[in-house]
From TrEMBL:
This is Tetratricopeptide repeat protein. InterPro entries: TPR-like_helical_dom_sf (IPR011990).
Length: 245
């Protein structure tokens, strides 16, 4: 039996079929709030914490008291999301927290079966963090095929593509420390046209999605990054690769 806070009960089969496992509104005053949740091995769940009042964080604590998953910012927002595939059954704790550990406010917690898109996007992010760039590209591509409305999937794939090309360029010993051009200028000059086009296309698609969503500022920043990738002209004092953060 899966027992959730507030006296709501679900049987094991319901976890796989329910649209929403747990939905709660609450107030953090000031730092954190815990919710117990029984999870069965094999369940793949999404835990989403959103707030308009504060920068959220969320942690999932396993039956042994150890943290098994954590997220601060997700998908380019200050909200938080964990996609977790349970390897063991037991009583877990969802811990919703404020970023600064002090300022609180109202928030929404939702727990539900993870969508195929969320699973693919999460796999892509984990691969990116592990520097498995080929795996990240494949997983981001899968996520985009499932849902092409999220600009962060396109940005993630661009990051992975850029990083993969950079690793290959470095491994071939292409950097000339005696050249007048900087490291980045040399790399961008040598970037294969096909790779450049893939990165630019993903950035332009992300910019269009942000623009359509009413965020012209982010769209403009991305187009400055496109100019940098195409010409080597840095968009600001820091320059850098394809990411805007």
């Amino acid at each position: 039996m899966t027992v959730l806070s507030g006296g709501i009960c679900f049987g094991p089969a319901t976890i796989a079929n329910a649209q929403t496992i747990l939905e709660e509104e609450g107030t953090i005053t000031p730092a954190l709030k815990d919710y117990p949740l029984a999870i069965e091995a094999g369940d793949i769940i999404a835990i989403v914490v959103t707030s308009e009042d504060f920068d959220t964080m969320v942690s999932l604590i396993g039956p042994d008291g150890e943290e098994v998953a954590f997220n601060d910012d997700y998908g380019g927002t200050l909200n938080s999301r964990i996609v977790y595939s349970a390897t063991s059954s037991g009583d877990y704790i969802i811990r919703a927290m404020t970023y600064d550990g002090q300022q609180g406010g109202d928030f929404m917690l939702e727990v539900r079966p993870a969508s195929p898109y969320e699973v693919a996007f999460n796999e892509a992010q984990m691969s990116l963090e592990a520097q498995d760039l080929a795996g990240a590209i494949d997983a981001f591509t899968t996520a985009i095929e499932l849902d092409d409305s999220n600009p962060e999937a396109f940005l993630g794939r661009a990051d992975a593509t850029f990083g993969q090309a950079l690793d290959e360029w470095e491994s071939q010993g292409n950097f000339d420390e005696n050249a007048d051009a900087s490291f980045e200028e040399q790399f961008l000059e040598d970037l294969p046209p096909l790779v450049r086009d893939l990165i630019v296309t993903d950035f332009e698609t992300a910019a269009e999605l942000y623009e359509a969503d009413g965020d012209p500022f982010t769209a403009q920043r991305l187009r400055e990054q496109i100019l940098y990738i195409e010409t080597g002209e840095a968009p600001g004092p820091t320059g850098g690769g394809p990411r805007t953060e």
